[in-house]
Design goal:
Shape: elongated
Distance between the termini: 57 Å
Number of strands: 16
Bound molecules: adenosine-5'-triphosphate, magnesium ion
Length: about 425
Amino acid sequence: MKIQIPRGTVDIMPGESEKWQYVEHVAQEIFKRARYSEIRTPIFEHTELFQKGVGDTTDIVTKEMYTFNDRKERSMTLRPEGTASVARAYVEHKLFGQVNQPAKLFYCGPMFRYERPQKGRQRQFVQIGAEAIGVQDPAVDAEMMALALSIYQELCLKEIKLVINSLGDKTSRLAHREALIAHFKPSIHEFCSDCQTRLEKNPLRILDCKVDHAHPLIATAPSIIDFLTDESLDYYTQVKRHLDVIEVPYVEDATMVRGLDYYNHTTFEIMSESKGFGAITTLCGGGRYNGLVEELGGPASPGVGFAMSIERLLAALAAEEITLPIANHLDVFVVGVGEAVSPITLKLTLAARKAGFTAERDYLSKKVKGQFKTADRENARFVVVVGEEELAEGLIVIKDMTTGTQEKIAMSDYIATLQKKQHEGETN
Ligand code: ATP
Ligand code: MG
């Protein structure tokens, strides 16, 4: 029986994986410049971490988690997102005690959510994310948005927009909550059963419902902005002032509530506006989560962060028809004349690699003509020919495939000649 790949997962094959490496590398460089360090947390955690950290009224926790009991009957969950784990590690490793705050951390790795697979929505997907924990300062919020944007910009994406909102502080959210309950309660029977549960538990989630999103009461729902306390409004204004000064354009959307319970104050999304992009247009989501670390047993430590999936990033690149400049050139192909020279062709291949060239040889005992064909197909820059007779004199032939010229050299000059020729090629 042929066993197939699980639904909602993919094999990232050669030809495709280079794009992933490229994108990951670009992100790493950007994080490095912004002084963010990588954190690698486990793929699975105690289920409780996500119930507490993501929120047990969220879609993620109620419907999308891969949860299992281990052999000692402990409930474990494949991580559906990264922030809860990073906050746990922040507490676990007492990063709050470090002199330098905020702790600036980034991660990149697979996340798991049991969702209905479609374009841009998988059951295993890879998120790149960043968190700055320990400081509440509008400059950090603005930096976080600029940081997320810069990854897209570095990859030359143009048709993207930043959407921002504020969910305010506890007082703002409580007042807004009461207003939402009053707004929806008389007609709650017209909503899905999930929303009926959400009404008392977390009415904000109704605004985010994928079933009832077209219900007229959603559009007329009371806006969080009208309930922001003076302090929250001031913070929001400060964040926008920072964005204005650093010239990061944004649009405001007072209906944008994010899918995770722990957000307060700033929330943001980066969307693709490209026509070629599918129905799901959110590339990146983020926001401030001031209560999360405390919720996980640490001292009050305000945080802000974002997460984006590489799947949607690559889809956005495809929609804007951007090809990544991925180098996949072959510098040296070593051709052997006769089987007796096989150990020598291997030796020369390895020597070239050791000197930093990409190098390959034939493994199928092909005739010389066939080996040259392979070298041609692989677009080799140089072909090195090893024949028994020349070898007896300590000589090999180097052919420059761009000019067609070839030259007989001493085997001892092999690497030096390659380096010289390549250098000439670069300066020509
Ligand atoms: P959506 O509304 O699309 O379900 P979300 O609010 O669940 O998104 P977040 O939890 O904020 O998304 O995750 C941040 C980012 O991770 C998203 O903007 C998206 O780029 C990506 N993402 C989330 N779920 C998936 C998935 N199932 N497959 C691929 N990428 C995903
Ligand atoms: Mg989701």
